[in-house]
Write a structure and sequence with these properties.
single chain, alpha+beta, eight-stranded antiparallel sheet, 19 helices, about 35% helix, about 20% strand, disordered N terminus
Length: about 700
């Protein structure tokens, strides 16, 4: 066994002094990044040794150690593996790749590859849990199948190759999210079982080594592939970086640190990855927010954590920045963006449903010393209907995350057991309240321009500024979401199932990407367009007053003829809860009516329509939300109210919102003044009305 058992199952001791970015030697030189500064400390680079036994889990043969790690989960994982003993490994035909070109269908290729990856992880878990060799043949079949593929890149991403086609070209190899993930799976399988493979036939291990080298190691080091491997940030100084950078880097470096035997190649790879990850940290804002939203947090900040944990472990702790405040803030974003129930704040392509693995949140929090993150993970393990806390699960289609789950689940299970003991003495509601006690009621991210606010009545307001070329962008500068006691009122639809159109020149013909399907105005009848120059200005936030303001004028094109459009959101912090949205504007000229849009989940009762035996008054409308919540919106009587119903048939939308959403349209007169203001106020209607 490579490390004493206690180093696996007790919290990591992270003894690294607070790091400050240092200036590179030489007058006028650019400052080194956080990661480069750490990498250049004496002895750190030398701690990455090719062929070193560093992986922080027991060897396959150490059965008592595995039994302790898996605990009560072993039997369930073995049963899941047994279901795959007759699994037929999916062969992906040429037409499955070509389907993306022909019809825009990504799933024809992605589904079988995803099924193979998932099967391999489940079989690896089963064999590690049981240790009797029953699953070795099937694991060997899986890695053999993977080794025969020219490429592990998805059809939707193959256009980055020089041919520009969806079928892999055997003359070129580059790396995408899926290929990095596939490489990490076969590398982990090789790490644990290559001796068992050799008993079957050494050709299996040789094939795996060759495939990882061909599909991952070589293209990562090849400067000719910098353009295709755009996520490195090395092809252009103006490259837009997003979750691909930490995601791909973490998987690729796991492959290098498990498979590369040449020290010079490993040194080159480590140095290049450090540079790439610093470029990512330089590109994103430093306030800790994830501009792609909570559902991408696991692939952005979460994968940054994976990369940092891999580097920490592979260097025996020499490379560590876990005590850096920025790394901690990036982690705690996922706790701050949580609304309640199943909902999180969502902007851009992010889903409004909480879907980040609790085990990832806990292990990230454990590494950076964040009680808030660890408590949030435990909070999400509450099974309220059965009045208990569940044991943690195993992350599905990510092999490294799965190994991290094995590593840390004993500690999480111990915490869960303690909470379940507490339930014998105290109510669940009280324990859940304490788990969230340390979370501030409001958080302001001044660079990303996101603000999350909650009052004592559990009204939640999420707002954003930003610009219209953010990663996974929607044209949504200045939009908001509003929830009351975890019930959606004003919403952001999010994104439907990814197709070829989603990331093409036709992206903004998709309704959910457009300004007028967000909680925003059409100024002079004009919507916000796509482009980095369309952005907010004069963004301000006063958390003590529950106030967020920004000028939207620059987010609209010239034809909107807008001098200024100051939008403000005010959440009452005490007294009767309400949210007031105010638009104060000055136009150069009046061309068309203004149309204020609000997207809601619920039924809308317009002025003049009956409700509970009364008629809704002029300048008011009612939003009938889930769970019997009724919210009244008051608005200027000069605006004419109407409602559009948006039928939903995409399974991704239906899962969140049901069969439809409704858009409130509040339209000014065609000759409305060029200066003025509109005020919209949300209050709750008592059930007695």
């Amino acid at each position: 066994m490579k490390k004493p058992m206690k180093s696996i199952i007790i919290p990591l001791v992270l003894a690294c002094a607070t790091l400050l970015p240092a200036m590179a030697a030489g007058e006028g030189a650019e400052p080194r990044g956080l990661l480069q500064t750490q990498y250049e400390k004496p002895g750190v680079a030398q701690s990455f040794v090719a062929g070193k036994e560093w992986f922080p889990l027991p060897d396959y043969e150490e059965r008592s150690a595995w039994a302790e790690l898996f605990g009560p989960d072993a039997e369930r994982l073995i049963r899941q593996g047994e279901k795959l003993l007759d699994y037929e490994w999916k062969v992906i035909p040429a037409t499955a790749y070509l389907a993306f070109e022909r019809t825009g269908d990504r799933r024809a290729m992605e589904n079988p590859e995803g099924a193979n990856r998932g099967a391999m992880i489940a079989l690896i878990l089963a064999e590690l849990a049981e240790g009797e060799g029953r699953f070795i043949d099937q694991i060997a079949n899986g890695v053999w199948q993977a080794s025969q593929q020219y490429s592990w890149v998805l059809s939707a991403h193959q256009s980055r190759q020089r041919s520009g086609r969806a079928l892999p070209d055997a003359r070129e190899h580059f790396i995408d999210l899926a290929s990095g993930r596939y490489g990490s799976i076969v590398s982990i399988a090789y790490h644990f079982f290559h001796k068992e493979f050799d008993k079957l036939d050494p050709s299996i291990s040789i094939a795996v080594e060759a495939a990882v080298k061909r599909n991952i190691l070589d293209p990562f080091l090849d400067p000719n592939e910098y353009r295709a491997n755009w996520w490195l940030g090395l092809a252009s100084k103006d490259a837009m970086l997003n979750n691909w950078t930490p995601w791909c880097n973490s998987d690729v470096m796991l492959c290098f640190l498990l498979m590369e035997k040449d020290q010079k190649r490993l040194d080159k790879a480590v140095a290049q990855s450090v540079k790439s990850m610093d470029l990512f940290l330089d590109y994103i804002q430093k306030d800790g927010a994830c501009e792609e939203g909570p559902s991408y947090w696991g692939a952005a900040a979460g994968k940054l954590y994976d990369w940092l944990q891999i580097f920490h472990d592979a260097s025996d702790g020499a490379f560590s920045v876990f005590d850096n405040p920025r790394i901690r803030k990036m982690g705690e974003f996922i706790s701050r963006a949580y609304i309640g129930g199943r909902y999180v704040v969502n902007f851009a392509d992010a889903s409004p449903l909480r879907d980040v693995p609790n085990e990832l949140v806990w292990s990230y929090g454990n590494a950076v010393g964040s009680t808030e993150m660890k408590n949030y993970a435990l909070y999400c393990l509450a099974d309220i209907s059965n009045n208990r806390f569940r044991n943690p699960a195993y992350s599905g289609n990510d092999s490294y995350r799965t190994t991290q789950t094995i590593r840390f689940n004993p500690m999480i299970r111990k915490a869960v057991d303690s909470l379940n003991l507490l339930l014998k003495e105290r109510p669940m509601e009280e324990i859940l309240h304490e788990l969230r006690e340390g979370v501030p009621p409001a958080t302001w991210y001044p660079e990303t321009e996101m603000c999350f606010m909650r009052n004592d009545a559990q009204w939640y307001l999420g707002t954003k500024g930003g610009y219209n070329n953010e990663s996974h962008n929607h044209n949504d500068v200045g939009t908001c979401v509003v929830y009351v006691r975890d019930i959606p009122v004003l919403v952001d639809a999010g994104v439907g199932t990814y197709t070829k159109q989603t990331f093409s020149k036709d992206r903004y013909s998709i309704w959910s990407m457009q300004c007028d399907w967000h909680n925003l105005p059409m100024i002079n009848g004009v919507a916000q367009p796509f482009g980095g120059k369309y952005r907010s200005k004069d963004v301000r936030c006063d958390l003590k007053k529950g106030l967020f303001t920004l000028d939207l004028a620059n987010a609209y094109p010239e034809e909107a003829a807008c001098r200024s459009w100051i939008r403000s959101y005010r959440l009452t912090l005490k007294g009767r809860p309400s949210i007031t949205i105010t638009d104060s504007f000055s136009l150069e000229r009046r061309v068309n009516p203004d149309v204020e849009h609000f997207l809601v989940k619920g039924t809308v009762i317009l002025p003049g329509e009956p409700y509970n035996g009364e008629t809704v008054a002029e300048g008011e409308l009612l939003i009938l939300c889930d769970e019997g919540l009724t919210v009244k919106m008051t608005f200027p009587k000069t605006l004419k109210a109407s409602v559009d119903i948006k039928p939903l048939d995409d399974p991704k939308f239906v899962k969140v919102w049901g069969s439809n959403l409704r858009r409130i349209n509040l339209t000014s007169a065609a000759n409305a003044p060029v200066k003025g203001h509109y005020e919209f106020r949300l209050t709750e209607v008592s059930p007695e009305r």
